[in-house]
Design brief:
nucleotide-binding; DNA damage
Length: about 550
């Protein structure tokens, strides 16, 4: 319930700090005194949009802060939004002079949507304007389902429905992919066979490029190697190896006479050994060189195939080409597995749909029973409010398809006149009748679980006398289980309240601003008498005020 509302620097409100009690609360005041302004401020903590035009003093920020008493049913919301839960939760909205807005829950900054989500669970505002929601099928569903008061049933249905929709969407996506694969599968199969025929081997391009270079220059390579071998081992003493050997022998005779000569000898010895090894390797390599035009042609053809495939698939290396091959094979594999996966998911979907259908039928049964009960319970309430011939019929039909609301469509049919034809609410009901119907529905829902603080904003417009008293009685009835705040011009309703606030304008030389105060017993008599006598209190008006109050 709403425990306290603090408003600063909003429209005609400079500063207002209002404590609220449980039960039935009445708010009265002259037209234009600021009752609607207070509701506008309250709308800020319900997540409504605002700008700097609402500021009384453009140099200061506007603050609207409300304290609510919460039960443990709100724990899940706070956990889901990573907020600290408190049984006394403070919601605050700030609007700066430049129009920027900030929202807080228990001093933690939150997104406006988060504040709005919580606010809608805490306060339910009804006026002749927004009772139009009663014409909305979603709201009609919420009335019936709240009356059923079996949250586990609806939670279970929503869980199955979410899983079913998820599976259905996944199957649709897979079938779309399968259709796309089928269009391209023949082409992918051709590419795969082309790769299979090519029989590409990791690293072969580099080896082939080296080989073709060797084969293309085989004659020159072989000639140069033969000449080099001759230079190294000419039979005469002019061969490099023989010359090194002779030099080595000469130095060996004098190496013992100086350290430097010994080092030179060792280097000559190493050079001799190295040249012998080079000669051996050149001989072996030279023997391996064959001028093979057939092999050259084969290597050229192989490389041309690789280059052609690289160009076709717009890659620059064999490694990238092999990746393309693997991707094509993967697509073909996925395509072959899609049908199997789709069939598996369809089987799972069928099982879930079967459970979902059973739950939908159970919900339909509960809705039909509940709608019949609501139709019966609401008649005496409507009669008390001057609608003695009114009839409400809740029409629940069954569809072949399932939605988040189950298998049903819902329509509230109404007729206010005896013997008249039942028609959809949107076509036949007036604003005043709609307000009283909403009030009656709230009364029917009174014992069906927790409801937020309910604010009735002048929904009693157009009623008077005994009917007004009956409207007040119904509000009083609802307030036995829920906090009810009624903004009213009717003394019969104001007198039923457990506590009574008055909104009034305070005029000074500099400005006019709105204030609100809780009335004492004597002040209530004066206020109700003022309403009765339209501003000029008479003894009879005062006596009637006392009679209404006591």
């Amino acid at each position: 319930m709403l425990q306290n509302l603090k408003i600063e620097n909003y429209a005609l409100i400079r500063k207002m700090d209002i404590p609220f009690n449980k039960g039935f609360i009445a708010i009265t005041g002259e037209t234009g005194a600021g009752k609607s302004i207070m509701l506008g401020a309250l709308g800020l903590i319900l997540g409504q949009r605002a700008d700097s035009n609402v500021l009384w003093d453009k140099e200061k920020k506007c603050i609207v802060e409300a304290v609510f008493e919460l039960d443990d049913s709100f724990n899940a919301f706070f956990d889901a939004n990573d907020l600290d839960f408190s049984s006394q939760t403070t919601i605050r909205r700030e609007i700066t002079s430049n129009g920027k807005s900030r929202a807080f829950i228990n001093d933690t900054p939150v997104q406006l949507n988060t504040m709005k989500e919580l606010g809608e669970r805490l306060i339910d505002i009804h006026s002749q304007h927004n009772t139009l929601t009663l014409k909305n099928s979603s709201f009609q569903f919420s009335i019936i389902d709240s009356y059923i008061n079996n949250q586990a049933l609806f939670t279970n249905y929503q869980s199955f429905y979410t899983n079913w929709r998820k599976l259905s969407n996944e199957i649709a996506d897979l079938e779309k992919r399968e259709a796309e694969f089928q269009k391209e599968s023949s082409y992918y199969q051709f590419l795969s066979e082309e790769f299979e025929s090519a029989n590409l081997i990791q690293g072969e391009q580099e080896e082939l490029e080296q080989e073709i270079d060797l084969l293309s220059n085989a004659e020159q390579i072989k000639t140069n190697i033969v000449e080099s071998i001759n230079y190294l081992e000419a039979e005469e003493t002019l061969g490099a190896i023989n010359l090194i050997q002779l030099t080595r022998q000469n130095i060996s005779k004098i190496a013992s006479h100086h350290k430097s000569l010994d080092e030179i000898f060792k280097r000559l010895d190493s050079s001799y050994i190295e040249l012998k090894d080079i000669l051996s390797e050149l001989t072996i390599f030279g023997d391996s060189i064959n001028i093979n035009s057939e092999r050259l042609l084969l290597v050229q053809e192989r490389l041309e195939l690789i280059y052609k495939l690289e160009k076709k698939h717009t890659v620059n290396s064999l490694e990238e080409l092999l990746k393309v091959r693997d991707e094509i094979d993967e697509k073909l594999l996925v395509s072959s597995n899609l049908s199997e996966k789709i069939e598996k998911l369809k089987k799972e979907e069928k099982e879930i749909f079967s459970q979902l259908s059973l739950l939908a039928k159970e919900i339909t049964k509960e809705r039909k029973l509940s709608s019949q009960s609501i139709e019966k319970e609401i008649l005496p309430l409507l009669m008390d409010m001057g609608m003695k011939d009114a009839v409400l019929k809740i029409n629940i039909t069954t569809n072949d398809t399932l939605s988040s609301n189950g298998e049903n469509d819902i329509e509230f049919l109404f007729n206010a006149n005896k013997g008249g034809e039942l028609q959809p609410i949107s076509k036949v009901i007036s604003g005043g009748e709609l307000s009283r119907l909403m009030l009656a529905l709230k009364a029917v829902m009174n014992n069906k679980g927790a409801m937020p603080t309910i604010i009735f904003d002048e929904i009693d417009t157009g009623v008077s006398g005994d009917i007004a008293s009956k409207v007040g009685n119904i509000m009083k009835l609802i307030s036995q289980n829920h906090q009810v705040i009624a903004i009213t011009h009717l003394p019969q309703i104001a007198a039923k309240a457990d506590s009574h606030f008055k909104v009034f304008k305070n005029n000074t030389e500099e400005s006019t601003y709105s204030e609100m105060k809780i009335l004492s017993q004597e002040e209530r008599i004066e206020e109700i008498a003022t309403i009765i006598s339209d501003g000029n209190i008479t003894p009879s008006a005062k006596a009637l005020a006392k009679e209404l109050l006591f």
